[in-house]
Design brief:
The structure holds 2 protein chains of 2 kinds.
Chain A: E1 5-14, H1 20-29, E2 34-36, H2 38-42, E3 49-51, H3 64-68, H4 72-88, H5 92-97, E4 100-105, H6 110-123, H7 133-137, H8 141-150, E5 156-159, H9 165-178, E6 184-191, H10 199-202, H11 213-216, E7 232-240, H12 241-247, E8 253-262, H13 273-286, E9 295-297, H14 304-318, E10 325-326, H15 329-332, H16 339-352, E11 386-393, E12 397-404
Parallel strand pairs in A: 4-5, 4-6, 9-10, 9-11
Antiparallel strand pairs in A: 1-7, 1-8, 2-3, 6-7, 8-12, 11-12
Chain B: H1 3-17, H2 31-35, H3 39-53, H4 68-80
The chains are: A alpha/beta, B mainly alpha.
Chain lengths: ~400, ~80
């Protein structure tokens, strides 16, 4: 059974907007969400750069227990998921009568883990961590919380694939729905942005130290000096075409291909072959011609080697076919576990509104990015109906999704 | 701390923590039912007592605590221990 798989809802809570409209405005107008957090420098971080987010206040929206069990990234995930479900036209009644699942990307819950262990060490009484710490700390915190808040009765687990987590979640949902095993899966990814969350990543000197936050994330630019950590949450409602049509839902896009691979080499340094195979597998699965792909949302995080090797992989696969390529991380920084899902949202927003956002801060290409069509300025009045989105992560995990307008 | 102070502080803390109207907290009202406590919430009562009254207890210590009056007695006894 090969069923068609569509997207019927999207929600986003990120440093460039707390909903789709705000995000569209930021992407269109070149508004970066990156700032500087002096507390990180006081804590010994090499870089104080981060995406800047406001914590949503869910008092009066969720009850006490529901709120307490959510870690920081869970607050974002709830808001994004509610926005996505509302757009899809899915309410509590429908979820009670139908089997919807949840596959969400998450690969840490550092602040909650730290708080719990600190308390136990200091107090020597485990009960003083309170009842909520366990539910905030586990890696599956988002799926356990979203499933109970929304009453989900289908597949329910967290996808931990480093910075490709959100993308793999959507890919796995595509496989399950395509094969007839699920009708509707809530997919996404979330990432915490607190000062404890990325100290160990900062230790690797992977972050930009550019003194100007708005210039720090510069994917593919010759003078890039590292990524900017960021976060938030993004949710997409992935559904069988039959289910969407039965509900009379507006179909936003169709998921047509999922590719994946593992580099099998270095734990943090990416290569070219792994990403290349992921791209090719997605293209083969989608059955599209290279010429059909009108836009590529690159993984490019603004690290020297990562961007270089991704540019090489894209060039190896696409050759003289040169669709516009940007990395929306130029706006957001690297949203890590969330990025594979948020970048589907950013890409669909661009597709729906006939533009490709500028690759902010792309001033001078390097020896690989010079072969790609990377826009320094926003491309307007550009209609495309198929795009490819890359997400790669530590351990050499790679994921590629191909999405097109529903016809 | 006098019994009146214990009662006043408990009503404020419990009504805020468990989001109930303070007027439903009366001496003979059942603690768990009134506050909607399950076994998980009892762990949060342990935290509350530690942070606000400086009393170190375990959730299993609440076995005999049925009413709010029992709860105030429990605190009073522990504070005077």
């Amino acid at each position: 059974m090969d069923r068609r798989v569509v997207i019927t809802g999207m929600g986003i809570y990120s440093c460039i907007g707390e909903n789709k409209e705000q995000v569209k405005d930021s992407l269109y107008n070149g508004k970066s969400g990156i700032g500087f957090d002096p507390v990180r420098v006081e804590m010994g971080y090499r870089s104080g750069l981060t995406g800047i987010l406001r914590k949503p206040d869910l008092k009066g929206i969720l009850d006490r227990k529901q709120r307490n069990y959510l870690p920081e990234q869970g607050l974002y995930a709830y808001v994004a998921t509610k926005e996505a479900l509302d757009q899809a036209g899915i309410d509590a009644e429908w979820l009670k009568e139908n089997e919807a699942g949840v596959l969400y990307g998450n690969d840490s819950s550092a602040e909650a883990v730290m708080a719990g262990i600190d308390t136990i060490r200091e107090k020597k009484n485990t009960q003083l961590v309170g009842s909520s710490n366990i539910f905030q700390s586990m890696n599956s915190t988002l799926t356990m919380n979203l499933a109970t808040i929304f009453g989900l009765r289908g597949i329910n687990f967290t996808v931990s694939g480093a910075c490709a987590s959100g993308s793999h979640a959507i890919g796995l949902a595509w496989l399950l729905i395509r094969q007839g095993l699920q009708d509707c899966v809530i997919c996404g990814g979330a990432e915490e942005v607190n000062k404890y969350s990325v100290g160990n990543f900062d230790a690797l000197s992977a972050f930009s130290v550019n003194p100007d936050p708005s210039k720090a994330s510069r994917p593919f630019d010759r003078n890039r000096d590292g990524l900017v950590p960021s976060g938030g949450a993004a949710t997409v409602i992935v559904e069988s075409l039959e289910s969407a049509q039965k509900r009379g839902a507006t179909i936003l896009a169709e998921v047509v291909g999922y590719g994946f691979s593992s580099n099998g080499e270095h734990i943090s340094t990416p290569n070219v072959d792994g990403p290349r195979r992921s791209l090719q597998r997605a293209i083969d699965a989608a059955g599209v011609r290279l010429e059909d792909i009108g836009y590529i949302n690159a993984h490019a995080t603004s690290t020297p080697v990562g961007d270089l090797n991704e540019a090489k992989a894209i060039h190896e696969v696409f050759g003289d076919v040169k669709p516009p390529v940007n990395s929306t991380k130029a706006f957001t920084g690297h949203e890590m576990w969330m990025s594979g899902a948020s970048e589907i949202v950013y890409s669909i927003i661009q597709m729906q509104n006939n533009f490709v956002a500028a690759n902010l801060n792309f001033e001078e290409p390097d020896e690989a990015s010079c072969h790609l069509n990377i826009p320094k300025e926003r491309i307007d009045n550009y209609e495309f109906d198929t795009f490819l989105s890359n997400s790669f992560g530590f351990g050499g995990t790679n994921s590629t999704l191909i999405i097109r307008k529903f016809k | 701390m006098t019994r009146e102070e214990i009662i006043s502080k408990s009503v404020d803390l419990l009504s805020e923590e468990f989001e109930v109207d303070p007027s439903i907290i009366t001496d003979e009202a059942p603690l768990k039912e009134t506050l909607g406590l399950d076994s998980l919430d009892l762990v949060d009562v342990v935290v509350l007592l530690d942070q606000e009254f400086g009393i170190s207890v375990k959730a299993s210590d609440f076995v005999g605590v049925k009413t709010f009056s029992d709860f105030y007695n429990f605190i009073e006894t522990r504070l005077n221990a």
